[in-house]
Amino acid sequence: MRISGVGCCLIDSIYMNCSYNDEAFQNLMSVKKGDGGLIEGGLVFSEDVEKFANKPYREILEELTSHKKPDVMNLGGPAVVALVHASQILAEDTIEVFFHGAVGKDADADFVHSSIAKTPLKVDFKIVSNQRTSTTDVFDDPSRRGGKGERSFLNTIGAAGFYRPEDIHSSFYNSDIILLGGTALVPLLHDGIATVLKRAKKSKCITVVGTVYDFRNEKKSPHTQWPLGKTSSYKNIDLLIADEQEAIRLSGKADLQEAAHILISYGVGALIITRGALDMIVYSGGSLINPCALTTLPVSHYMDELIINYPPMKKDTTGCGDNFVGGVLVALAKHQLKKDNTLVNMRDVCAYGAASGGLTLTYHGGTYHEQMPGEKAALLQPIVEAYFQTVGELK
Fold it and tell me: Residue 121, SS3?
């Protein structure tokens, strides 16, 4: 079995214990949609925040961080982090996991290569020699969301801006499961996502799409819905995973229930809308996942209680959503290995997703660096089992 993914891969530089109430952050906060200002919980491109602040990005970064170096630098990006997680958890199964994407030819690219080399993930990179590897500066304010924490992102696209659907190696379509993750940070790929999905379905791949905040289209038209390539993309998505804000902007509806119904009407096979520490909204039409009407499922209460009882365990929320997607891939792959022609249950999918996202709270950044194979799987398993024990079957 093979899982392949394409999309965003970058270096996360994480600044801990920020306060969005500080003057430096308040001066940079967005005033109106698409103006280039910092967005709490959202992503802005570095070139746009330069225009907003009318100063070079380096000066902006120094003001936000008080000239401090990042607390953590780690491999990041919605696609590659999800796939690293899947490769680690599925290491003992006969499953190959591949990532396709772009890097520059610089020190950050060396960091990407060395980080991935320590994992079971296999890669196919396009090297864009005259561009820097993509980076994101992450500002973590642990006081937000009632103490659950929030992040804001400043992204430099770099080499990812030169990756197109035509750059994807043909082996990508010889996979059982494919992921398109965070393609809004890979603009040319994002614009051509409909062609990638159409070819993938023609090749009988299971298609999973995980979205990310699409500041490029937010900037173009702040008051209209974001495109996902073309509306025709949705009918070739077996499972769409988006957070609350992304679902609202993709649908063009301010009410989350309405947003979910719109996305379902576009033809997605199944839908998961994450809401941070709040219950997820889920749906399945019954093509990949057992049918379930629009309903909710919880996040991992096991992890919530663990962190309440042992506060020092909590590090930051960076990568929680990416690992959630990775956990979903694990659940789909484990079920496919059964080869019994049954459909997977939404509870099982969300159990692995919620457990994987919850575990991410206990280390810095999205990528977990194992000391030995199977280490992360051993940490994950009791969280998954606790979810099964506390969440009943969906009706």
Answer: coil
Distance between CA atoms of residues 300 and 182, nearest Å: 24
Both structure tokens of 191: 């614009």
Backbone angles phi, psi at 277, to 5 degrees: -85, -5
Question: 354 burial class (0-12, 13-18, 19+ CB within 10 angstroms)?
Answer: buried
Could you tell me which of 117, 148, 153 has the C-alpha nearest to residue 138?
153
Cβ–Cβ < 8 Å for 16, 71: yes
Contact (CB, 8 A) for 331 and 351: yes
The DSSP symbol for 135 reads: E
**Alpha carbons within 13 A on the beta-carbon side of 269:** 17
**Which single residue is written with the structure tokens 């399945």?**
284
| Residue 228 Rama label (left phi>0; alpha psi -120 to 50; beta) | beta
Q: Are 1 and 96 in contact (CB under 8 A)?
A: yes
Bridge partners (DSSP) listed for residue 153: 43, 138
Report the distance separating Cα 178 and Cα 327, nearest Å: 14
Residue from 367, 345, 358 nearest 386 by CA: 358
| Alpha carbon 145 to its chain's center | 19
Beta strands in 203-247, from DSSP E residues, in sequence order: 206-210, 239-243
Residue with the two structure tokens 């709490």:
40
- Whether the Cβ atoms of residue 365 and residue 120 lie closer than 8 Å to each other: no
pLDDT confidence of residue 144? 86
- Look-up: residue for tokens 């009318």? 54
CATH topology of domain 2-390: UDP-N-acetylmuramoyl-L-alanine:D-glutamate ligase (3.40.1190)
Reading the block at residue 94, the tokens are 């006969």
**Of 25, 27, 123, 146, which is closest to residue 75 (Cα–Cα)?**
123
Q: What is the maximal distance between C-alpha atoms in the chain?
A: 60
Enter the tokens of residue 168. 């994807």
pLDDT category, 393, cuts 50, 70, 90?
low
Give 59-108 pLDDT, tens digit per residue.
Answer: 999 999 999 999 989 999 999 999 999 999 999 998 999 999 999 999 99
